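Subject: Re: docking follow-up (NAP)

Dear J.,

Thanks for your patience while I sorted out the input files. As discussed at Tuesday's group meeting, I've set up the holo structure prediction with NAP included as the bound ligand rather than trying to dock it afterwards. The sequence and the ligand SMILES I used are pasted below, so you can double-check that they match what you have on your end before we go further.
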Amino acid sequence: MDYNVAVVGATGNVGREILSILSERLFPAKDVYALASRRSNGVEVSFGDATLKCKDLATFDFSKVDFCLMSAGGAVSKEWSPKIAAKGCVVIDNSSAWRYDQDVPLIVPEVNADAVAGYTKKNIIANPNCSTMQLVVALKPLHDRATVKRVVVATYQSVSGAGKDAMDELWSQTKGKYVPGQEVAPKKFAKEIAFNCIPQVDVFMEDGYTREEWKMMAETKKILDPKIKVAATCVRVPVFVSHCESVNIEFEKPITADEAREILRESPGCLVIDKHEPGGYITPMEATGEDATYISRIREDATVENGLAMWIVSDNLRKGAALNAVQIAELMINRKLLRKAS
Ligand SMILES: NC(=O)c1ccc[n+]([C@@H]2O[C@H](COP(=O)([O-])OP(=O)(O)OC[C@H]3O[C@@H](n4cnc5c(N)ncnc54)[C@H](OP(=O)(O)O)[C@@H]3O)[C@@H](O)[C@H]2O)c1
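The structure tokens for the complex came back this morning:
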């Protein structure tokens, strides 16, 4: 049985990646529709070897569609997801609009696949934040073995996580450093991103944390275990694609670095690259375009009882967004959960 699929936000970073992943993985799609705002009506986007012409989300008829893979921001999702879901189409949303709604499952197939069955309440499924995604993929198998108590994480997040305009800003500011008169003032970010690091991702909250930091804490609890404590510091770095995380984990039970390495080697979605030599670890450049969550620099943290430290890297546009959304649709098909097939 083949399914009709709509990709909303098809001109964006995540939408384009969704189209390429649907094609790469030979997703059982009958018709694929590329949708964006009215501004992009008629704009061509690639779908494998084919080209699709974008249509306007506002005038599109979703009654013929089975899956809507949505990545057009929170405001668009808040307005459109319930209307699309009411047509019988399952919405898999990349924004933060629905992630904390009790009636919307927040799914990472390697971590909490069974929770997907809860989608029927609203016909909407949420995709986690990109920084949370790679963290929980690595934490899950270790949590099963030794029970995670507390996580302290510092992120090094690429600019693609802030959309295509943010990538343009890094590119033009970098060029502006070398071409006199072409300096570009910060617009998307609060400070210059070229040759810099910015300790702010998303807006500030009352307690001094940023919303990205809060998301990592709240989403890890919802997906993995509400008892896990998370303290995050999220930093934007001048890298185009792939996020890195330096993570310290405190467990209830003892676990050695060697044990963790062996467990992660066998775990779905994880790839361990951990040689104690120059270059024996993964960097964002190598993770870009790949599906895995890479784990390097696994070592014991002797400053706490049962502690480990590690370095986690993943392509934020693939596992951090597009790939996970497609995996959720595949999960629903494999478990025969879809109520309607076109
Ligand atoms: N980038 C990541 O790593 C990442 C990871 C996880 C989640 N997300 C989330 O995914 C979403 C998209 O991110 P992105 O990086 O792909 O952003 P982006 O590159 O800025 O693309 C935004 C997309 O949304 C479309 N859009 C905007 N307003 C619209 C409207 N009124 N109606 C229909 N379409 C509209 C745009 O279409 P036009 O070209 O027509 O304006 C474009 O296709 C965001 O919610 C983001 O938080 C991103």
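A couple of observations from a first look. The pocket of NAP is lined by residues 9-15, 36-37, 39-40, 57, 71-74, 76, 94-95, 130, 160-161, 163-164, 316-317, 320-321 (CB under 6 Å). The chain has a mean pLDDT of 97.

Let me know if you'd like me to rerun anything.

Best regards,
T.
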